[in-house]
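Researcher: I'd like a structural prediction for the single chain below. Treat it as a standalone chain; there are no partners to consider.
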Amino acid sequence: MACKAGEIPVCGACELGRARWRLERAVAELEEARLAWGVWADGIRQLTEQRLGTDDFLDFRVLDDPGYARALDMGTPFEEAVKSAGTALAAAGGGEDLVAGGHADCLCLAVKAQIGSPHP
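Model: Treating it as a single chain, here is the predicted structure.
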């Protein structure tokens, strides 16, 4: 089910809807954190360029600088967190096989229909 960021899905009263809404918020926050890290790492690059007396981004002295390399390495957890949260959000979003049963507005009902649950 597609919904606007920050919007509770149509069936938001169920736990799946609430979980998905929280995941959407988490993804947005993690993307902001990744952006903040990128701005910080760019500042480290600029300081390294100043220290080395260069303004060439592709200067291997900058790229080989241990401090700048460490700043870049520190971004890995941010990238992994955004990717993992996006994967979780996609999983909570179901898929075409779930919405094909006529429950496109409610993933919870789609899953329950797929397993033959007598409780909607």
